[in-house]
Every structure is written in structure tokens, then in C-alpha cells.
Design brief:
The complex is a heterodimer of chains A (about 375) and B (about 270). Chain A has about 375 residues and is mainly β. Chain A has one helix at about 1-25; strands at about 40, 45-50, 55-60, 65-70, 85, 90-95, 100-105, 110-115, 125-130, 130-135, 140-145, 160, 170, 175-180, 185-190, 195-200, 210, 215-220, 225-230, 235-240, 250, 255-260, 265-270, 275-280, 290, 295-300, 305-310, 320, 330-335, 335-340, 345-355, 360-365. In chain A, strands 1-2-3-4 form a 4-stranded antiparallel beta sheet, with no helix packed on it. In chain A, strands 5-6-7-8 form a 4-stranded antiparallel beta sheet, with no helix packed on it. A 4-stranded antiparallel beta sheet of chain A has the order 9-10-11-12, with no helix packed on it. Chain B has helices at about 1-20, 25-40, 40-60, 60-70, 75-90, 95-115, 120-130, 170-185, 190-215, 215-245, 255-260, 260-270, and strands at about 145, 150. Chain B has about 270 residues and is mainly alpha-helical. Chain B has a two-stranded antiparallel sheet. The chains are: A mainly beta (about 375), B mainly alpha (about 270). Chains A and B meet through helix 1 of A and helix 3, helix 5, helix 6, helix 7 and helix 9 of B.
Chain lengths: ~375, ~270
């Protein structure tokens, strides 16, 4: 009889577990974030796309100016870094497969247009050049839209063989696009025509970096490629030993990059030779930040570390430690690193003093 | 510990199979689910056998008479019941042990499928840390297209002549879960177990159907595959038991070896 009761209890437990899961998914509270915050800085305003809201924070007084939508909607989440036009139009893509153009005059977001033709989520940030906004979608397509009305500009969107998760890079009349299909594409901005492509052998998760005519791409296979931006031809490569997520940063003839195996590298821009190498506290998915003397790396388990650009020696006595996961790229504003954080119940943006490494919460989470 | 011993091996095995099957993640889910069911066959066999034997015992005349005779003496009823279990070679804990061991395996399998699909950058970043060196980097991210479905998204079949989309996998999940639950939780003798069986056969299909409707279709494919294999296993076991039991009904093997087990169960109280 005891055994029968035990078996029955186990079955009840399974049933209650399933009920619990269903109730949790039907609840009215904030939903759990499925990716890291997308953050953009423009005109002393910080735009944060995270979970159910896009928020604009005035960095002068560190107060929220507006949020979109006004009320949380369980079917609407945002993680792609917003793009801001010169006249203040905010373009933001959602996991609801739509692209919203928000007018923010009077500090109130009003929808100017909505693009609804994408067939999958908008994960990578849009990019704006003149009157064109480029929107990458997980449906494998890059859409070129008229900034004023959201109408398609190209005859057809450009289609890659896998999802597009990173913002395109616009350089004059050229667009450089990295894809999870392992390929870097160069397109004509006006027409979307393919100029060249180069299959790098494994997925590319972040936007390429451009410097001195070199296009730098880190891959899931752990290789950093330097390509000729005109032809896509490989000029040099560096094997880092583990997946590279964050795009590299170039400063003063050096390339700074980190990988998921906790390695940070400084390389010679000319040939990819290692100048110095340091071990980070944890895996890095972010791009480094540089100042005149120092390069900063944020890594997953809440560590921000500073090294001297010249020799790789630590610039702080000890690294800054933040509660939560640091997976999104930090931004340098004045003398403070603004570090987006995931899985912290109170704070979404930490400020880290670039000189001392002292930390403070700059933007509270506030999920409405 | 969980990641090292359950999740990482499961994810890498799934991706290995995916590569082996021409980078088809739908087929990989089907084959991987079948393999896991094969590995856990001794457990599921034990669990199914246990519930079938228990149902047979509870339906037997001897058990019913025992219940009637000792309805006011729970202590005695318990003693007699354990005696009966020993006689027919039934281990009352074997069923729930199998069920308990299966839980982490099922959860691990579910997590492996969801994590391998890596539908967001955070999930893909996490996946990158789970993959063994032996897995080629160029496999990631996995191609989540299977037939007309994106396995990372809920499934809907759109037909030109219909104004609405049909959630085919959801329907299959509901039907197959209902059939499997009916098959593996046979009607029992006592009221509580019967009530439980009815609840399971009603709510489980609806709950899993809800998950299939709202979550990634890769998960729904796993549900359907697992259910169909469970149905086949249940049918085979039922056939074998019926064939072995002869005209008197299905009976536990150990008692049969002793001979005339059906008589022991049905006439046991008379002998007393």
C-alpha cells in the first residue's frame, strides 16, 4: 500500500510540476529575460532594450526619460541595441518580428511607423545611414528601409543562408554584414547588391570591425580574420584557441580581442602577431573598450579588468566585480564604463570608474 | 555536476548525431530520443510492468476479497498485501524507482534539445561553453529547419486553401500523450488510483499540448517521438503479457514459475 501511495505521489508530483510550469508561464509578472541588454549611447542619452521595455535614460541626471511600451506586454520583448537617427528617431527591433520607429519629441515615444514583414525576431541592432535604415533579422534577411516611412528601399532584402544576429557595419557606400552562416558579405548600400563574400568556416556572431582598410572578424571557431575591405581577401589570421564573440577593437596599431576561454590578446594590426596575452576571470563575449592608456575587458562572471595597452600589465590593483552576467558590450562615457548586466535583480547598468575600478549602480532594473 | 554528467554529454551526443545524419536536427531529435528510450528501457519496462502487475493484482478476486475482509483493519490488510506481493514476485518499489530515475533523464533530454537549438545569443554563448573539442566548430549554430518547420519556433502548418494555420505537432502531441497515458496507466482496482489515472489521461495531453503549442517545435517533436515509442513499448508489453497469461489473464512471471499463479491470486482467500 505504501508503494502504491509512493507511485501515486510521484505521479501527482509530476502533474503539479507541469501545472506549476504552466502557471509560471501564464503569470502576470515580468517574464524572465532570454538574452542580454542591447544598449546604445547618443546625445548623452542611454537607450536600453531589455526584456519588455526600451528605456531612454538621461545621463545628465540619470533619470528615465521614457519607456516603450508604456505597459509591459508579454508578447513583446526587446534585446537589439536601438539605432538613433540624427533627428532623434529611435529605431528598435523586437522579438515580435517587428521594427518600430519612435519619435521621442516631448520625451514621449510615439510610433511613427512599424515594419512587419520580417518572418523572425530582430536580434541584431539596426544601422542608419542617411535616409536608409538597415535591419538584420533572424529570418536570414537584411532589410533596407526608408527612415521616414519604413518602406523597403531595395528591390529585395538581401538574404544569407542563416540568421543575422549582429548589426551591419556601414562604411560610406558599403555595408559589411556578418552572418551565422559563417560568411562575411559586402553589399552596396543603395541597391543591396552583393559585392563580395568570404566564408570564414564558422559562425560570426558580432559586427566586424573596420580599421585601416582591414575588416576584422572573430569566429565561433576561435579564429580572428583580417580581410581586405575592398575584396574580402584574407590578409592574416590569428588562432585564439576558443570562440570569439565580441568584435575586436583597434587602437594605435593594435588589435584587442578576447575569447570564451578567458584569454585576452593584444595583436599587431599589421600581421596579427601577439604583443601580449592575459588571462581573464571568466569567459568573454564582449568587445573591449580602450582609452589612451588602458584597455578594459568585461567577462561573464561579473568581472571588469583593466590592462595597460602597451604591455598588458594590470592597470588597477584588482578588477571590478559586479553581481550578474556581463555579456553585452560596455560603453565608455566620459571617464566611466557603462556596463550592462544580466541576471541582476536590482541593477541593469553599472557604472565603473575607468581610473579606479570603483562601481555603482547607474540604472535600476525597474521592470514596471 | 548536472552539467558535466547529464547536460554536456547529452548536448554533444545530440550534435554528434546531427552531424552523422547529414545535419538534420529533426532526425537527430528523433534518433536521440529513440536512443535515450533504449538506454532507459530497463527502467520504463520495469515501470510499465510494475503498473500492469499492480493493476492485475488489484483486479484479482483475492485482492478484492482481502480488501473486503480487512476493510476495518489496515494493519492486517497491509500485512496480507505484502504477503501477496511476495507470493507473486511483485516488488512494490520497482515502479516508482524507475519513474524517479527517469525524471532527471527526461529533464536532461529536454534541456539538451532546447540548449542545442540556441535561439538567442545568450543561449548560443552558453552552448559554446558546453561543446567538446571533438565537435567541429562549423556545425554551430545548428540548422533548425526540419520539413516545413523551424524547430526553434512553435510549429504551424499553413495551407493556401485554409484561412488559418494548423498546429499539426500540437494535435499529434495531444493524441499520442492521451494514448500513451491510457496504455501505461491501466485502470486499477482502488478508487484513488483510478482517480489519478483519469486525471493523468485528461490533463497530461492538455498540458503537453499547451507546451507544444507555445514552445519550440523541436520540443514537440521530442514529445511525439517519445510518446509513439512509449505506445509501441506499451502495446508490445501488453501483447506479451496477454500471450503469456493464457485464458486466466495477465500474471507476474515469478508466480507463474511457481505454477498456477492465477489460482493463487484468484483463489488465495479461499485457501485460507
Amino acid at each position: 500500500m505504501k508503494a502504491t501511495r509512493l507511485t501515486t505521489s510521484v505521479r501527482y508530483f509530476a502533474l503539479y510540476l507541469l501545472f506549476g510550469l504552466i502557471l509560471a508561464s501564464c503569470g502576470q509578472g515580468p517574464i524572465q529575460a532570454s538574452s542580454w541588454p542591447g544598449v546604445t549611447h547618443a546625445d548623452n542619452t542611454l537607450y536600453i532594450a531589455y526584456n519588455q521595455f526600451v528605456r531612454a535614460i538621461d545621463l545628465e541626471n540619470e533619470r528615465e526619460i521614457w519607456r516603450f511600451p508604456a505597459e509591459a506586454d508579454r508578447n513583446l520583448t526587446f534585446y537589439a541595441p536601438p539605432a538613433v537617427s540624427s533627428d532623434g528617431l529611435v529605431i528598435v527591433g523586437g522579438y515580435d518580428q517587428k521594427v518600430y520607429a519612435l519619435s521621442t519629441s516631448n520625451n514621449r515615444p510615439e510610433t511613427v511607423w512599424v515594419f512587419e514583414n520580417a518572418a523572425d525576431r530582430i536580434i541584431g541592432g539596426p544601422a542608419i545611414s542617411g535616409e536608409i535604415v538597415l535591419v538584420p533579422s533572424a529570418d536570414h534577411k537584411l532589410y533596407a528601409l526608408d527612415l521616414n516611412n519604413g518602406q523597403p528601399v531595395w528591390a529585395q532584402p538581401f538574404e544569407s543562408k542563416h540568421a543575422l544576429w549582429s548589426a551591419p557595419l556601414i562604411d560610406g557606400t558599403m555595408v559589411y554584414l556578418s552572418s551565422l552562416d559563417h560568411t562575411v558579405y559586402a553589399l552596396d548600400l543603395e541597391s543591396g547588391r552583393l559585392e563580395w563574400e568570404n566564408d570564414l568556416g564558422s559562425a560570426i556572431s558580432d559586427t566586424p570591425s573596420l580599421s585601416n582598410g582591414l575588416l576584422l572578424c572573430g569566429t565561433f571557431g576561435g579564429t580572428l580574420y583580417a580581410l581586405d575591405k575592398e575584396t574580402g581577401r584574407e590578409l592574416w589570421r590569428f588562432e585564439s584557441g576558443a570562440a570569439i564573440w565580441g568584435n575586436p577593437v583597434v587602437a594605435d596599431g593594435m588589435v584587442y580581442v578576447a575569447n570564451v576561454d578567458r584569454d585576452a590578446f593584444a595583436l599587431d594590426l599589421e600581421n596579427g602577431a601577439v604583443i601580449w596575452r592575459q588571462s581573464l576571470v571568466s569567459s568573454a563575449s564582449t568587445s573591449p573598450i580602450t582609452t589612451d592608456e588602458v584597455v578594459y575587458f568585461a567577462s561573464e562572471e561579473g568581472a571588469v579588468e583593466a590592462f595597460r595597452k602597451a604591455d598588458g600589465d594590470p592597470a588597477w590593483p584588482s578588477g571590478a566585480s559586479i553581481l550578474g552576467r556581463l555579456l553585452a558590450d560596455p560603453i565608455l562615457v566620459k571617464d566611466e564604463l557603462l556596463v550592462p548586466v544580466m541576471e541582476n535583480n536590482e541593477c541593469i547598468i553599472f557604472g565603473v570608474n575607468a581610473d579606479t575600478g570603483s562601481i555603482r549602480c547607474l540604472v535600476q532594473l525597474d521592470e514596471g | 555536476m548536472w552539467n558535466s554528467f547529464i547536460l554536456e554529454p547529452a548536448i554533444n551526443a545530440l550534435i554528434f548525431i546531427y552531424d552523422l545524419l547529414g545535419q538534420n536536427f529533426g532526425l537527430a531529435i528523433i534518433v536521440f530520443t529513440a536512443l535515450v528510450r533504449l538506454i532507459t528501457l530497463p527502467l520504463t519496462y520495469q515501470q510499465m510492468r510494475s503498473s500492469m502487475v499492480m493493476a492485475d493484482i488489484q483486479k484479482s478476486d483475492r485482492y478484492k476479497k482481502m480488501q473486503e475482509k480487512y476493510k476495518n483493519d489496515r494493519q492486517k490488510m497491509s500485512e496480507e498485501q505484502m504477503k501477496l506481493f511476495r507470493e507473486v514476485g511483485y516488488n512494490p518499489f520497482s515502479g516508482c524507482l524507475g519513474l524517479l530515475i527517469q525524471f532527471p533523464i527526461i529533464i536532461g533530454l529536454y534541456q539538451a534539445i532546447i540548449r542545442s537549438l540556441a535561439a538567442t545569443p545568450a543561449q548560443l554563448f552558453d552552448l559554446s561553453k558546453f561543446i567538446y573539442d571533438a565537435i567541429p566548430d562549423n556545425l554551430i549554430p545548428l540548422n533548425s529547419t526540419f520539413l516545413y518547420m523551424n524547430l526553434g519556433q512553435p510549429e504551424r502548418l499553413e495551407l493556401d486553401f485554409l484561412p488559418f494555420a494548423i498546429p499539426v505537432l500540437t494535435i499529434l502531441v495531444v493524441i499520442s500523450t492521451y494514448l500513451q497515458t491510457k496504455l501505461t496507466t491501466p485502470a486499477a482496482g482502488d478508487q484513488q488510483s483510478n482517480q489519478m489515472s483519469q486525471m493523468m489521461s485528461l490533463y497530461m495531453p492538455l498540458l503537453l499540448g499547451y507546451f507544444a503549442y507555445t514552445l519550440a517545435s523541436g520540443l514537440a517533436l521530442y514529445f511525439v517521438t517519445s510518446n509513439l515509442l512509449g505506445i509501441v513499448q506499451g502495446l508490445v508489453m501488453r501483447r506479451v503479457r496477454e500471450a503469456n497469461a493464457g485464458p486466466e489473464g495477465a500474471l507476474p512471471a515469478k508466480a507463474k514459475k511457481k505454477g498456477k499463479q492465477s489460482e493463487q491470486i484468484s483463489a488465495g482467500t479461499k485457501k485460507r
